Known about the structure:
This protein is mostly beta strands. The chain has 2 domains: 3-35 and 62-251, Lipoprotein localisation LolA/LolB/LppX (outer membrane lipoprotein receptor (LolB), chain A, Clam), CATH 2.50.20.10; 276-403, 2-Layer Sandwich (Phosphorylase Kinase, domain 1), CATH 3.30.200.100. It has helices at residues 10-17, 26-29, 50-55, 72-84, 174-178, 284-290, 392-403; strands at residues 8-9, 63-64, 88-99, 103-114, 119-128, 133-142, 145-150, 155-159, 180-190, 193-202, 209-210, 212-220, 226-234, 239-251, 276-281, 305-314, 317-325, 331-337, 351-355, 358-366, 371-379, 382-388. The strands form 3 sheets. It has a 12-stranded antiparallel beta sheet. Strands 15-16-17-18-22-21-20-19 form an 8-stranded antiparallel beta sheet. A two-stranded parallel sheet has the order 1-11. A hairpin with a 4-residue loop joins strand 20 and strand 21.
Amino acid sequence: MSPERLKTPLAAVLMGSLLLLAGVTATTAVSHQAAPAAAQPSMDTTADTPDAADDGEAGANTATNDSENITTADLVSRFQNRTDRLDTLVMTVETNSTMNGNQTYSSERTVWVDYEHDRMRTERTSEYAQSATSNEFISVRNESGVVSYSVEDNTVHRYNSSFSDRPADVTGLSSIVNNSEATFEGRERLDGEETYRLSLKPDLDAMAATGEVTVTLWLDTDSYFLEKAHMVANSENHTVETTQDYRNVSLNESLSDERFTIDIPDDAEEPGHSGFEMTDYESLSALRSNATQDVPSPDLPDEYSFDHGYIVENDGNTSLSLKYTTDANETIRVGHKSTSGFNYSESDRFETVEVGNQTGWYTEFDNGDSTTVMLAWHHDNSEYTVSGTVNESEVIDIAESIGDE
């Protein structure tokens, strides 16, 4: 987890996770769902009774605990297995988000994801009620990078950032499920369709967030994929309510190569360089040859080998990351940034430790079935980080091996 995302207010967590699909963040805005909150269908969560079942009223949303003996752990596991083991995914997501009761954002996004071939297409329209503006974007991301086209502006942007650089979970919800106390509420008819209703109480410490948040998911009873998600986040200054409806979902069906191309009009403008560029390297020697700053050489256990790394150039600042893995999928990441914009000493998330003769900041993140540790320290006006599935003493030893260079 990058330091900039630590100890963020819950409104930011909401925007960065649930609204990932809506394309609100700076990175997804170039690449990247149903009515306003007041018009959402009401939900009667009382258990079904024989009389109610005999009424046969269409469209009512009702819940029952007749859940075929499925436990909370079963449901969470099946949801995670579904999202983690997709070959392809097609879905349309309608999002409506309201901040402080009066600032409304809505969007509709259709996405085609081909995990096997590392490529994704997104078509998105979005609207901010306060500005009465609407935008339409089309983007394709693959091993060559990202091409994003704005229909309204007739502009095209190209980015050197591959699909493999992006999170595998395009729903943005798996990390929340991993860091939440879940409760299976039973079966519920949602707009006439049977679903499983799952409520979540996120572990805010694990998510490095402050405030209060409630999350409810509705999962398809056959595929265990999302039908709907609802989140309310309260921080000191904001209350954000977001609803997402998932439509036209298709799982593991073949996708044509033509789907991952964009027909750019000949008269489309291509503005100058955006100031952001990410380059991925499968060879450590190639990364070293192209780096403009020190590339750390950590002393790691023999079972770790270099997997890949990347260099990011952003408005004059440079950062790099090296990923090392074992055959058992254990991971260590080493990072170096030319500048540091995060004050670890002001965050109660971190504890101070000694890294040689320097001060370091250490923390742990619970990922459900494993724990990731992170250690950061400053040297010569730059920042170094080491993170991975190791313990505190091991990560300090790795950091000190870099500090001795």
